[in-house]
Amino acid sequence: MSADISLAVSTAIFALRPHPDTGLSALWIPLVRRTRDPFENRWALPGGWVSPDESLSDAAARNLLETTGVEPTYLEQLYAFGAVDRSPDRRVVSIVYWALVRPEQADAATDGDNVRWFLADDLPELAFDHNLIVDYALWRLRTKMEYSRIAHAFLGPTFTLTELREVHEAVLQRPLDPANFRRQVEPTLVATETLVTGGRHRPPRLYRYDESVRLVDNGPLTIATPRSTP
Amino acid sequence: MSADISLAVSTAIFALRPHPDTGLSALWIPLVRRTRDPFENRWALPGGWVSPDESLSDAAARNLLETTGVEPTYLEQLYAFGAVDRSPDRRVVSIVYWALVRPEQADAATDGDNVRWFLADDLPELAFDHNLIVDYALWRLRTKMEYSRIAHAFLGPTFTLTELREVHEAVLQRPLDPANFRRQVEPTLVATETLVTGGRHRPPRLYRYDESVRLVDNGPLTIATPRSTP
DNA sequence: GCACTTAGGGTCAGGGTGACTACAACTCGG
DNA sequence: CCGAGTTGTAGTCACCCTGACCCTAAGTGC
After folding, report:
1. Is-above-0.90 flag for pTM?
2. In chain B, what are the domains?
3. Locate the Nudix hydrolase domain: which residues (chains A, B) (predicted)?
């Protein structure tokens, strides 16, 4: 049996905010300061223990809300980390999730002594194996960006093509040709009638995602494992 | 804390063997018969409890060997299943792995009352949520076949292009053009000097994988989480 | 020697991609 | 009110990858 193994969930949360140097959108991640040993005062991913009456994704969502005040628009399991020595005092297996939030939702997690936002590509030394975990989560986010539709988790229901392109550029860290980008994503979108005026240029059209276009995602798990709390 | 959650590992093992009807290679999976409740007498994925002094992948490999006698050439974590009601009597979280074995290794797991090989695409109703798990594992195998190099886990160190192509055909369940297939995979291979004579046709050349060609795989986890027991 | 079978090299048309050009349509400064 | 500035959107073109297809190479077996 395995009663002496503790089961935890942690989540790597990503949000887009301006980079302090360039002003361009960049990936940020909220971390919590540990208030006890091991790794007291080190920054760590938000997380906690799984209680017996909640699913893993529910536990992740609950811990997220409790520790950082964040309610994500996207939540997916990343990996189960279970090396014997990953916690110095006892055996902990962590089911790690990754989440995407919109800027407004991110603001719910106000910086404070206990929660602080960091640039995802420039983190301090974290507690446990959390640096490795964030690296892996970043890799998954960037890989998945290329073939799936997760970018929309950073945006509202409607958006301009430039907004969508800037999400891709921020995550992939390279500029994309506006015309070519349009050609590629337009088949998965539906144009609305609305144009956004007010900019000092030609007003862009608002788009929404075309729900009828199915993309490869998580295969059989896509429908099979919905969150029990919507 | 989480002492009342049991932590298990299970593994979906794949091997290629001839299909009884067509004679072509097909995917087979070994299952074990449950000897106690819940789901007594139902077929299930091999698995067992994680002990506190072994990593998750070690636990998977050990359980594999104990229950089916199989030592895989490839072992990768699939997903952590943790729905509250997936086991009727108590709360079990299962870290599921998937494995690939060569035919010789597969023969170690002789069919018997307790272990039997099934066609992966034609399974009976399994215990727990194991049908969903196998579906997901199959999806991952087939998806990964297209962009990675896992096919080699079904083969020895050297192989002909036809052997490699037949592995792809068996997994993807569709015929591939030999000439086009060669063009696509040859850049990742090294030709040996050896030709295989004895067939009633032009002798094919043996190839081996080019270790210097890096493919996208599991990102940061590729090197970071090796099995502790090699 | 000839039929047969698979190995392996080549061609060609079509689709997608990146680089680039051109025009459209708004705001703002004068 | 007009032109400059800026971004949105359409289109072109060369290139590469792909699938479909053809052809020759080189063994075995009769």
Report:
1. yes
2. 6-146 (3.90.79.10), 150-209 (1.10.10.10)
3. 6-142
